[in-house]
């Protein structure tokens, strides 16, 4: 079946640094990838939609300069949290769409100290 | 825009008892409906989905859901739960046309199976 690999699964970084999260579709080509954020005990909130080779579309209220999304190929999308602050600590999940529909990654737990 | 409501934030149920997790959606156009399960500190796993056709959808782990257009509901059911079903369950909706659209999630329901 369709598999999406998300890396790293958890990361701790210092305030002010940048962190890159990778989302790879392992056995299918993903024309569209979605990035979600989940706060503790809350639902998933869509941050942005990215299509291969074009700029990401951000949801209202999401800072595009802070959350940089690159979808350079049909199998890889990256989310970079720039100048991270403690309030950016959260669980980030990607989703890729292919012939099997939506497939989610296993998520990345980001903690900014 | 479409939206989804999960009225129950937590549902405790005894092992081997039946369970129903409620989900209602709102949309003026056709939609796709999904149920996902999330175990602690993990991503989402698709339980089942309704795209079209039969309104009774069977998924993995013995779960099923019924699409009811008149009541705009998509409740998730299992006739006999196990301890391993303890997790958070999310109902989700997306537009039913125009290719893959963004998925909107409900607030989730924590299912706690009591031994």
Please give a handful of descriptors for the protein shown.
heterodimer, A: 113 residues, mainly beta, seven-stranded mixed beta sheet, four-stranded antiparallel beta sheet, 11 strands, 0% helix, B: 115 residues, Immunoglobulin-like, 12 strands, 52% strand, globular
Largest sheet, strands/sense/barrel of chain A: 7 strands, mixed
**Strand segment count of chain A:** 11
Largest sheet of chain B: 6 strands, mixed
Counting structural domains of chain B, the number is 1
How confident overall, as mean pLDDT of chain B?
A: 91
Question: What's the rounded overall pLDDT mean of chain A?
Answer: 91
Helix and strand pattern of chain B: EEEEEEEEEEEE
**Tally of helical segments of chain B:** 0
The backbone outline of chain A, from C-alpha atoms, is: globular
The CATH architecture of chain B can be given as Sandwich
Report the span from N to C terminus of chain B.
41 Å
Which shape of chain B, going by the Cα principal axes? Answer: globular
* CATH fold naming of chain B: Immunoglobulin-like
Helical percentage of chain A: under 10%
What do you see in this structure?
The complex is a heterodimer of chains A (113) and B (115). Helix content of chain A is 0%, strand content 56%. In chain A, strands 2, 4, 5, 6, 9, 10 and 11 form a seven-stranded mixed beta sheet that branches. In chain A, strands 1-3-8-7 form a four-stranded antiparallel beta sheet, with no helix packed on it. With 113 residues, chain A is mostly beta strands. In chain A, β7 and β8 form a beta hairpin. Chain A starts with a strand and ends with a strand. By secondary structure, chain B is mostly beta strands. Chain B has one domain: Immunoglobulin-like (Sandwich), CATH 2.60.40. Chain B has strands at 3-5, 10-14, 19-21, 24-26, 31-38, 44-50, 56-58, 64-68, 73-78, 87-95, 104-105, 109-114. In chain B, strands 2, 5, 6, 10, 11 and 12 form a six-stranded mixed beta sheet that branches. Chain B has a four-stranded antiparallel beta sheet with strand order 3-9-8-7, with no helix packed on it. In chain B, β8 (64-68) and β9 form a beta hairpin. The mean pLDDT of chain B is 91. Classes of the chains: A mainly beta (113), B mainly beta (115). The interface between A and B is medium-sized, with 23 and 18 residues.
